[in-house]
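Deliverable D4.2, example record:
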Amino acid sequence: MLLQLRRGALLQARLPDLVAAARELPQMLVADGGLVVWGTGALSFEALQRRATAGRRDVSRLAESLPAYFVVFDVLQLDGRELLGGPYTALCSRCCSPSTCWRRRRRCAR
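Output generated by the structure prediction step:
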């Protein structure tokens, strides 16, 4: 798995919890999204910054106390096929259930 920021920095060494979770995903998946970390009852940009800048000694401890999540905005490729040109409902039916798939406040149809 490759976790890359817009400016090119790689983060997988600092986010082992996400790397472990990604093992459940298809091998040939390219997704666009955002990293989030929950603080005390809400999303915390400060906690996300702590995770993204953690030193080697702190990575495991922070993964336990401040788990990171990846929120997918778009699936760009799946199984080596580019999906940008196809209808969104076809993409949705391949990667999620109708109860969990939302885009622009509309539920996907199967």
